[in-house]
Design the sequence.
């Protein structure tokens, strides 16, 4: 009976954390799908500059929300902060179409971003705490497939709703509120400062310790790797069709390539986490970033075969997207439980800066008419810097203050 209850509890955690990540993929694509209609209809007088403001301020909110939620979650647990974040995001998403001007649309998107930004770090932390000791990376990558599920759902609904863009946000907000109700009744707690203190004995680890030895190298390495990873993900998702058009590919083919890139992402997420847990997260993450760098350089070469270019883009998606997520999977192996949500939140928050810089920098290259091939060179350099950042991080071992239980980490060290 106890085993069955534990299995049921774990299934609810997996399902609800996955659903939480769905909202981020849905939200980003919903805004991107709505912008052309907003500009065509000049809704509340919005211009291209206004649309840029609304989309950028949203990402700023997401970054701040991710950084703030970690310490709160480490103190209060995972369950309540996650539900509150979902409610904040959902209510403000419902309100967005009702805003009378661009300035207020930006305010609402920023506040919604605060809630949305808090969702993913807490969901990933809860999933890692539910996973087996040597299954944290796979738990992370499986959870992040929800991002792409949300992106696909938003794409389909955008086709259904067409010019009725507001219904994208009404749907997202309503589903979010419904999910929050289910989470209130079904989502169990997975961690808190009290639980962590019981497990880690007498050693106290505080947030400030993340930027002091023995965690300084770990923290800085993860921050740089997350920045580079999200720079790649957002830069490619935003500008790949335009770059491929500049390379001479047809518009329709360029859009197909974006779909192929994200199909590769799902494949990579399903495979990469298992490899990282089996072979070790450090080496796997370095290989994934390194392979991404090589493939991005390869994409700078004009290919005549449509089958070949689709194959290269597919494999590029396998490595680019998963490399970034493996950085999150690394966190659970490197920090004690008392601060793991804070660490995850700060990694996600700093990474969001890369999500802003990636599209902005690539946009400058597009405006200058040199996005092909130099956009791919910039992306390849970012991936190479990701390899260097991960190389700086010490291999996973039993975090200071944790009690050894005889288990072994993926690199063969006691945990």
Sequence:
């Amino acid at each position: 009976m106890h085993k069955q209850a534990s299995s049921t509890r774990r299934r609810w955690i997996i399902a609800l954390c996955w659903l939480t990540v769905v909202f981020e993929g849905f939200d980003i694509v919903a805004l991107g799908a709505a912008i052309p209609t907003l500009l065509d209809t000049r809704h509340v007088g919005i211009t291209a500059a206004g649309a840029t403001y609304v989309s950028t301020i949203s990402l700023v909110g997401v970054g701040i929300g991710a950084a703030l939620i970690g310490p709160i979650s480490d103190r209060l647990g995972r369950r309540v902060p996650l539900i509150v974040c979902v409610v904040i995001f959902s209510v403000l998403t419902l309100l967005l179409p009702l805003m009378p001007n661009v300035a207020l649309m930006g305010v609402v998107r920023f506040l919604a971003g605060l809630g949305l930004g808090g969702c993913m770090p807490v969901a990933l932390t809860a999933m890692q705490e539910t996973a087996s000791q040597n299954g944290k990376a796979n738990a992370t990558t499986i959870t992040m497939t929800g991002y792409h599920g949300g992106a696909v759902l938003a794409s389909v609904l955008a086709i259904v709703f067409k010019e009725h863009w507001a219904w994208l946000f009404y749907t997202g907000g309503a589903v979010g509120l419904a999910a929050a109700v289910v989470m209130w009744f079904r989502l169990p707690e997975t961690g808190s400062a009290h639980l962590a203190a019981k497990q880690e004995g007498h050693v106290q680890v505080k947030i400030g310790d993340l930027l002091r030895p023995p965690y300084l190298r770990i923290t800085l390495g993860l921050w740089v790797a997350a920045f580079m990873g999200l720079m790649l993900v957002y830069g490619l998702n935003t500008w790949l069709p335009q770059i491929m058009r500049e390379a001479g590919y047809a518009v329709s083919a360029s859009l197909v390539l974006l779909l192929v890139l994200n199909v590769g992402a799902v494949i990579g997420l399903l495979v990469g986490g298992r490899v990282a847990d089996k072979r070790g997260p450090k080496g796997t993450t370095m290989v994934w970033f390194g392979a991404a760098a090589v493939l991005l350089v390869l994409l700078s070469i004009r290919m005549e075969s449509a089958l070949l270019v689709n194959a290269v883009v597919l494999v590029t998606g396998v490595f680019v997207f998963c490399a970034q997520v493996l950085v999150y999977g690394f966190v659970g192996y490197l920090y004690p439980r008392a601060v793991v949500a804070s660490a995850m939140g700060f990694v996600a928050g700093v990474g969001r800066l890369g999500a802003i810089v990636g599209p902005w920098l690539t946009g400058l290259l597009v405006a200058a008419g040199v996005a092909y091939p130099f956009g791919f060179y910039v992306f390849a350099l970012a991936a190479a810097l990701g390899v260097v950042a991960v190389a700086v991080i010490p291999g996973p071992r039993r975090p200071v203050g944790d009690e050894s239980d005889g288990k072994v980490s993926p690199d063969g060290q006691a945990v």
